Amino acid sequence: MRKYIILFLVSLLIFSVFAQETNTSDKKITPKAELVLQDRANDGGTGFTLTFKPQNKPEELKTYFLRIYKEVNGEEILIREMKVNNSGQTVRMPMSVQKANTNVIARAYYQKDGEVIEFKEKSLSTKGEWVDSARLSAFIAAILFISMIFIYVKKARSGEELFVRRIPGLGEINDAIGRATEMGKPVFYIPGTSTIRDVATLASLNILRSVGRKAAEYTTPMKVLIQRPLVLGVAQEVVQEAYMSAGRPDLYNEDDVYLAAAGQFAFASAAQGAMVREKPGAVFLLGMFWAESLLLAETANSVGAIQIAGTDATSQIPFFIAACDYTLIGEELYAASAYLSREPKLLGTLKAQDYFKGLLLIITILALFLDIVGVDIIVKYILS
Amino acid sequence: MNLKKISEFLLNFKKKYIYLVMFVLISTPLILKVTQETYETKEVKSIYQRVEEIYQHNKENPEDKLALFISVDFAPSTKAECDPMMNAMLRHAFLRDIPVLGWAGVPQGIDYGLERFNTIAKEYNKKYGEDYIYLGYAYPFLQAALAFGTDVRIFASTDYYGKDTYDNYPIMEKFNNYNQLGLFTSITGTSLAEGWIQYANGLFNQDVAAGVTAVNASRLYPFLQSGQLVGMMGGLKGAAEYEQMVERLEKKEIKKDIKNYLSGLYKNYEAPEENPRKYDTSYTKTELLKSVNSRKMARQGMAAQKIAHFYVIALIIIANIGYLLKKRYESRR
Amino acid sequence: MGLLAWTTIGVILTIAIFSFLIKDNPLYKFAEHLFVGVSVGYLLVVTFTQLFIPRVYQPTKNAFNSGDVFMSIWMIVGIIIGILFLTRLTEKHNWLSRYPISITVGFYSGFAIMPSLYTRVLRQLGATVSEDGVSMINFQKIGLFFKNPSWANLYEATYGPLIVIGVLTVLIYFFFSFKNTNPVIKYTRKPAMVYMMVGFGAAFGYTFMARISLYVDRMNFIINEWWPLVRVNLF
After folding, report:
1. Which ipTM value was assigned to this complex?
2. DSSP A284-335
3. Low-confidence residues of chain A, pLDDT below 50?
4. Does A295 lie at the interface with C, CB-CB under 8 angstroms?
5. Helices (H), strands (E): how many in chain C?
6. Chain C contact present for B25, CB below 8 A
7. Residue B107 in contact with residue C43, Cβ under 8 Å?
8. What whole-number distance in Å separates Cα of residue B214 and Cα of residue A60?
9. Is residue B108 less than 8 Å (CB to CB) from chain A?
10. Cβ-based contacts of A315 with chain C (< 8 Å)
11. Exposed (0-12), middle (13-18) or buried (19+): which is A79, by Cβ within 10 Å?
C-alpha cells in the first residue's frame, strides 16, 4: 500500500513539473490595444492623428511596434516605423502626408519568439476641408470689413462728402518743399525700406505722388532713394505720373528715382552719403523703417534739412519724434495718404477702417462687461 | 549765479567729447573682461523651460522625438544681440541631444548662420544630417512657412550644400513638418518674428519663440501677453539671461572646465571616410579662446551696457537741468 | 595667419566707418562703397546658389524625373511668369512685368488678410478682455489689494485695467472720422498721448540698448577677437 502511495506521489510530482513547463511554453499573450486613425479637422487634407492605447499590462507585453504606410498608385510605402514602450499611457501622434486624399494604413505589431506579428490594422483616407471652421470669426470679420470698404468707396465715388479730420504735419509738406525751393536745394524722399507688400510703403507712395506734384510745380529737384527693386518700378511710375499731372513731364528724370543699395545698412550708408554730398533742403522719411531710421534722421538734421517723417513702425517713431520736425504717428500715415490725395478709394477705405474699428471697440467693451459677469461667449467664439 | 552761462555750458557739450567719454566707458569693462550677471525674466525662462520640456519628451519617447527649429533671420549687422541668443539656444539643444534644423530668412545671414551652426555643433560632436541640418535660404517667406505645414522638403528640396533633402539626410526623414517640431524660434533683427507668429502660430498652432533685437522687442510684448509667443529674448539682456541659464546647465552636464573639455573632445577621434564632418575635428589655440569667450559674450556686453546706460541717464539729467535753467533765465528776462 | 589678415581688414573697415564721426572722408567713402559693392555681389551669388538652384532648378528637375506632368507644367508656367519680371529692363516690353507684379502683390495681400486679422486684431482684442480665462478687470484682485496692500497686489490689481484703458483710449485717438471737438475724442486724447509717449519712451530706451550693443560688439571684436590673434600670431 505504502509502495502505491509513494508511486502516486512521485508521479504527481513529475506531472506537476511537466505541467508548469507546459504552461510556460503554451502561455499565450493576447496583444490588446486600441488603434485609432483620425483625420485632422480644418486642414488641407494632409493631416491625421494616430492614437495608440496599449491594453496589455506592462509586465505582460513590454513593447509594441507601429508601422504607418501610405498608398501611392496601389503600392504601400512605409512612412514611419516606431517602437512603443508599454507604459500604460496613450500615445498620440499628429502626422502628415504630402498629398491630400491619401490612403493611410496603420498596423500594430508585437514580438513573439523573435518574430514581429501584426495584430491590428486601421486605415483612413485623409480629407481636406473647404472651410477652416476654427478661423470662421476671422473670415466673417474679413467679409464684413471688405463689404464696408466697398460701401464707403462707392459713397466716396458718388461724390458724397466723407469727413476726415485735419492731421497736423501735413500742412508742413508744402512749406518744406517751398523752403527747399528758396534755398535752391533738392528734396529727398525715402519711401521706407520695406517691400511693396507693406502697407506703409503703399501709403508712402501715395504721398509721394502729392509731394512729386508739388515739387514739379515749384520746379524743385526731387530725388527718391529706394532700397527694394519692386518698389523702384512702382516709384518711378508714380513720380512720372505726378510730374505729368503737374504739367511738367520734361522735368522728370528717371535717374532721380534710383536704387541706392539693396541691403539695410548699405542703403543707410548710401543715403547718408547722398545727403551729405547733395545737402537737401527737405527730407521726407515716410514708410516702414528699421534701425536705419535714426541714421537717416540724424544725417538729414546735420545737413540742415527740414524733416517730415511718418512710419507705422512703433520702434522707430520715438526716433522720428526726437529727431524730426514733424512726425506722422502710425495710422496717421495712412490717413495722410487719403487726406492729401482725396482719392475716393483711399477716403472710402479710411472711413471703412474707422467704422470697423468702432465696431470692434463696441464688441470689445461688450465682451469686457460680459466677461466680468462670467460670460465668455464673445471671447470664445469671436475674439479667439 | 549766472543762469545763462551755466545753461549754455550744460546744453552745448561738444559731440566729440561725448563720444570720447562713451568710447572710454564702454572699452574699459571689455578690456578688463568684466562680466555682469543678470536677473532672469519670465519671458526668457519660458523659452528655456520649453526646450527642457522637449528634452523630457524626447527622453520618454525616443521613437517620437521633437526637434527644435532655429530660423537665422538676422544679418551680421545685428549679430551683436542675435548671435549670443543663437549660440545659447544651439548649445542648449546640443547639450540635450535635441535635433536642430535651421535656415536663414535673410540673405546676409545664410553663410553666417551656417558657420555658427557648424562651430557650435563641433563643440558637442554633432553630425550634420543626423543631429542637425541647415537648409539654406528660406525665401519666399510665405512659401517657407506654408511648406512646413505639409512637408518642408517640397520647399527646401536641397540643403545649403545642394544635396537632395529627400534621400540624403536621416534628420529630414523624421523632422519635416510642424508636428515634429517642439519649438520654432526666430532669431531676428527685423519683423520676421511677427510673420512666423502670424503664419506658423496663427495657421498651424505651432509654438513660436522669438529672439529679437531690443528695437523690435517692444513690438512683441502684445504677442507674449496674448500667449501667441512662448517666450522672447529681447536684446542683449535677453541673450545674457539665456546664456547664463545654459552655462549653469553646461557646468552641470559637462562637469569639467570648458577649455579642457574642448581640447580633449577630438583627441582620439579618427575621421571616417564616409560622412565627413562639416568642420575640422581639432581645436587651435585661437579657436579654443574664441569658443570660451563666446560663452560669455552677452554678459560681457551687459557690463559695458550698464555703464553706458548710467552715462546716458546722467547726460539726460544734465541736459534737462540746462534746459530748465535756460527756461528760467528766459522767463526772468 | 589668414585669419589674422582678414580680421585686421575687418578692424580697418570698422575704424574707417567710425571715422565718419569726425567728418566725411575718403576712407569712409571707400568703406561705404566697398560695403555696397560686396552686398550686391554676395546677393547675386546667393540668388543663384540658394534661390535659383533649390527653388527653380531642382524642383523642376525632380518633377520631370518623377514623370509628374502636372507639376512639370506648373513649374514651367511659374518660371515663365517669373522671367516676365525682367522685362522691366526694356522700355518696349516693360508692360509685361505688370503681370507678375499683380500676381505677387495680389496673392500676398489677399493671403495675408485672414492671418493678419486673426493674429493681430481678434487675438489681441481677446487678450485685452481676458488672459488665461481670467477677466482683465478683476474685482477680486482689486479687493485683494485693499485687503492686503503690497506692491505685488498693486501690480496684479492695476495691470489689467491699465491695459484695457490704454487699448481703448489709443484706439479712439486714431479715429479720423470724428471732429476734434467731439467729447469722446477730446477727453481721450490726453490719456492716449500719455500712454503712447510712455510706450515710445520704453521703446526708445530699449532701442538705445540695441545701439549700444552694436557698438559693444564692435569693441569686443577689436579687443577680444582681433587683439588676441595679434598677440598669438605676432608676439
Report:
1. 0.87
2. EEES---THHHHHHHHHHHTT-EEEEEES-TTTHHHHHHHSSEEEETTHHHH
3. 20-26
4. no
5. 10, 2
6. no
7. yes
8. 56
9. yes
10. 203, 206-207
11. middle
CA B287 centroid distance within chain: 20
**Terminal-residue alpha carbon distance, chain B:** 15
Contact B286 C3 (CB under 8 A): yes
The answer to whether B20 contacts chain C (CB < 8 Å) is no
- What are the tens digits of pLDDT across the range B166-179? 888 999 988 999 98
Q: How many CB pairs (< 8 A) connect A and B? A: 47
3-state secondary structure A121-158: EEEEECCCCCCCHHHHHHHHHHHHHHHHHHHHHHHHHC
pLDDT (tens digit, 9 = 90+) per residue, C153-180?
Answer: 999 999 999 999 999 999 999 988 888 7
C-alpha cell at A245: 499731372
CA distance C100 to B140: 15
pLDDT beneath 70, residues of chain B:
1, 272-276
Is B24 in the C-facing interface, judged by CB distances under 8 Å?
no
Say how far apart CA B211 and CA B68 lie, in whole Å: 14
| Residues of chain B neighbouring C220 (CB-CB closer than 8 A) | 30, 297, 300-301
Candidates C32, C126, C176; nearest CB to A164: C176
**Of the partner residues A93, A98, A316, the one whose CB lies closest to the CB of residue B64:** A93
State the pLDDT at residue C98.
92
Tens-place pLDDT, residues B207-239:
999 999 998 898 899 999 999 999 999 999 999
pTM score: 0.84
Residue A180: Cβ within 10 Å count: 24
Distance CA A55, CA C72 (A): 48
The pLDDT score that the predictor gives to residue A17 is: 54
Residue B321, pLDDT score: 92
Cβ–Cβ gap C117/A317 under 8 Å: no
C146 touching A (Cβ < 8 Å): no
d(CA C130, CA C17): 50
Paired strand residues for A328: A310
Contact B121, B91 (CB under 8 A): no
CB of B214 within 8 Å of a chain C CB? The answer is yes
CA–CA gap between residue A74 and residue B128 (Å, rounded): 35
The span from the CA of B15 to the CA of B319, in Å, is 13
